[in-house]
Structures are given as structure tokens and as C-alpha cells.
Amino acid sequence: FLYLIERRRGALERRMDGEAVGAHETEVANLISAPATEPAAEKAPTQALGGDEAQGVLKGEAETTVTLARREWRLLLSLSIVGFLVNCQPSEPYLAKYLLEGKNLSTAEVEADVWPYYTYAYFAWLLPVGLGADAVGYRPVILFGLLSRQATRVLLLYAEGLWPMSLMQVSYASATAVDTVYFAYAFLAAPEPAAPLAVSVMYAMHSLGNVCGSLLGQWLVASGHPVRLLFYYSWAFSSAGLACFVAFFPLPQGGGLPESLWSIVRREGVRGAAACVSEMYSMRIVRVWGLWWVFAYAAYSVVTNYYENEFYDIDPEGAFGLSESAMEAARMAGCLIPAVAPVAFRRQTFPLIIATSLLTAALLFMSTRARSLSFAVACNALVLGLFGFTQALSEICISRG
Asked: How many Cα atoms are found within 13 Å in the side-chain-facing hemisphere of 320?
């Protein structure tokens, strides 16, 4: 992801330099050929037009600006609708309950032989999907992730036993590992000025899908529908996300695709590619945020893997759909804050990392003392909100250098 940002930035700088040189040559040519007795036209070209004509020019420029804005918002929608749909999973808040009661697994089996497979498989998938995106393209890898979600749904609905459920977590890990490629795609498909907003919107819509899915799941369960039905709804939403990807997902921006890391490996060997990556990590901001990711993602993995068991232990009949929607709403809000925050605020890297890390640690400790479901949900929701905020902030800070 970081390497893609650096390659995209280099290509844009080279393109902007070329455009600047071309504009300078045109300006010189115009100065040479223009009469020396018309300085007023040079200073204010619209003054040479009549009032109505000048207003028409300004109106045309305003309409062009609005059109560009609308096009960017359509682009953001086409990018984020896939993440919204695949994460709109009414079954997600009831997964632990489904495994324990529907698949007849014990709590010890779920904690020791189901959830850990996701963590280890996710780690194993991350590097292959990143290199695969660089070698064969981002869209094929994103398609692979969407197909992995289909396999996850089939296993959940029709497979029985402990090991199929472990395999289900491996399949789901491959799908969520591809999410890193999906979010990085914003820097290929969106114009450079809109890329930070695109990242925040994609993260927020991803969480909004979980909010809507959790509320739908809560309503279905409260209406007396069996938990198994929720998994069919989740499969339908995942299939809708796959269909939207095939039909509407935008293509990369022309001119924004510099040489891939895979091409550098083939031309200069592993040593040349390693030197390229090493140069990227020579930036202090990349090292700082990279260190944050190592520890922050450890905490995030604990929360997302085991909060359902925590809630189930406190209240087996709790409103898990409402709990999950509250947590994802907090994360969605956190993802949007960096996009609208002042630039001076985003530059406070060290104070923000220290403050959010200490607050996250305190909230996690408090959640271990929770005796009520609402208090446990509040602690975990704030943790996810802080993580969503720093996650989006880290990518925006790195992209801005």
C-alpha cells in the first residue's frame, strides 16, 4: 500500500513537471507573438468581453466545477458501494451464537480452533495478495477476495464440524486481506486531490454496511426469524457486492500507473526492488506509522476476534445486532474525521499516536472489568472509533508525505 502511494506520487510529479514545462513554452510563444500595445488584455482577459459575455464565461467555469464535483462523487460511490454491500452482513453479530448453538461447537473449540485460524491466515495472505496486485493488477485480486467471500458463505451454511469452520476462517481471512488492496485502489482510481477523501469515504461506507447489516439482523431476530436465515441474507448482500464490482467498479486513472514492483524485480532483481522499498521506508513518517500499525493492529485483532465471545459470556440473549451497529458506527465516525480535520491537526503525528494509544489501552482494560453488556459495548465501540480514526489518518499522512 505504501509502495503504491509512492509510485503514484512520483508519476504525478513527473506528469505535473511535464505540464508545467509545456505551459511555460506556450506562454513564451504567446509573449513573443503578442502585440506590445495590449497590456490590459494580458492582465484581465475577461475585460475585453462584454458584460453578458463575461458572465457567460464565469457561468461556464462554475458549471464545469460542479460537473467535476459530481463526477468525483459518482466515482466515490462506485468505489465504496462494493465495500458497503459485502460488509452488510446481518449474520455477523450472531456468528459466535451460530457456531455454538447451530454448529454445536464448544466455547473452547471456537476460541482455540476457529478464531485463531483467521489471525494466522490473514497474516499469511497479506504479502501474496499485495504482490499479486502489483503483478497481475488490482482488479483481479479484488475479484479473488469477493469470490473468497462466496466460499465463506457456502461453508457457513452447508459445512458441518470443527475443521470446516476453521477452513471457513481461512477463506474469510483471504477475503479481508484483499481489503488492503481494495482500499489502496482509491489512489489509482481517484484524482490525487480527492484520494484522501476517497480513502475515508471507503472506510466509512465499509463500516456503514456493518451498521445497516447489524440493525437488519437485530430486527430479524427480534421478529422471531431463525439465526440461520441471517446467513442467507449475508450471502445475498455479498453476491450483490460481487455484481456491483463487475458492473460499476471504476477503472484506474490513465497516467497514474507507474512501473510496478514486479517489473523492477524482473529488470533489476530482488536487490534493486529491495533498494526501492528501503528508500520508501527512509521517510520518518512511514517508520513511525509502521511501528504504530504493528502494535495497534494487535489490539484491533484481539477486539474483533473475541468481542462476540465477551458479549455472549456477559449476556447470551443480548441484543448483539444493536451492539455491533454501535461499534461500527463509532468506527465509521472515526474514519471520517481525518478527511475533514484541519491540515495542522493531521500533522500532530506523535501527540495523536500517544494520546489514542493510551486511551485505547485504558478502554481495553476497563472492558475486562465489564459486568454489563452496555458498558462492554461502549468500551469496545470507543476502541474501534479510535482505531478507525488513526487508520485513516495514517494513510492520509503517508500519502501527503
From this structure: 26
Decide if 139 contacts 249 (C-beta within 8 A).
yes
Alpha-carbon gap, residue 272 to 267, rounded angstroms: 8
59 by Cβ neighbours in 10 Å (0-12 / 13-18 / 19+) ranks as exposed
Distance CA 373, CA 16 (A): 55
- Say how far apart CA 9 and CA 192 lie, in whole Å: 8
Q: What string of DSSP letters covers 339-363?
A: HHS-HHHHT-HHHHHHHHHHHHHHH
Model pLDDT for residues 58-98, shown as the tens digit of each residue: 344 343 333 446 677 888 889 999 999 999 999 999 999 99
Degrees to nearest 5, angle at CA 337 with 333 and 343: 175
**Contact (Cβ atoms closer than 8 angstroms) between residue 181 and residue 129:** yes
d(CA 195, CA 248): 19
- Transcribe 96-160 into DSSP letters: HHIIIIIS---HHHHHHHTHHHHHHHHHHHHHHHHHHHHHH-HHHHHHHHHHHHHHHHHHHHH--
Cα of 287 vs its chain's centroid, Å:
20
> Alpha carbon of 13 to those of 47, 123, 240, 366, 396: distances in Å?
34, 34, 38, 48, 18
